[in-house]
Structure formats: C-alpha cells, structure tokens
Amino acid sequence: MRAHVEAVADLRSLHRSETGHGQLAWRALFDGQGIYWTIKNYTGHRRSVATDLGKSLPPTDVEKADEAIRTWVSKEFEPTRAKNIGERQKLKSYLLINLAVQTDLLIFFGQWLFKSAF
Question: Where are the domains of the chain?
Fold first, then answer.
C-alpha cells in the first residue's frame, strides 16, 4: 500500500501541465470529483460513435486528457510502484534473513552456555 501511495505522490508532483487537456487529466486523477470516469466514459462513447459513422474524428481535449492519463499510468505510475514494491520486498527479505541469523546465533550461544554450565 505504501508503495502505491508513494507512486501516486510522485506522479502528482510531476504533472502540473499548462495545456488544457493536461490540466483536465491532472484534475481527473487528483481532484477526486468523478472527472476521471466522465472522461473515460466520454472517450468510449466518442470512439463508438466514430466507429458507427465509419469516420475518424479529430481528438478533443477530453480524449487527449484520457490519452495523457493512460500514458502517465502506464509509463510512470506503474514502473514507480513496481520499483517501490521491489525495494520494500528486498528490505523485508533482508530483515527476515537478519532475524533468522540472530535467532540462530542466540540458540547456538544458549546451547553452548548450557553445555558449559553442566
């Protein structure tokens, strides 16, 4: 969970766009007012209309915002989150191995002291 939160924070800090569709994409992801789902539904609807008409429609700012969101998520958020998860797993593995070694040493010295006492 922490890796996810850190990746979202990184993505949020990187994208303060001056373009209309960039601002719309940023607000959709981080303002939390349902804009994301509106953009996603609009883009899907517009694509189905274009398919029904058999035409290629020029992209609107909303569609550009949807593309920006998908690009940010796939090229920045997901790799950052995976990296953060990997680092956390390495740390957990190290701590677990360290604990196992300390436990083994404690048992060894405990047995050695017990044998020395008797």
Answer: 2-87
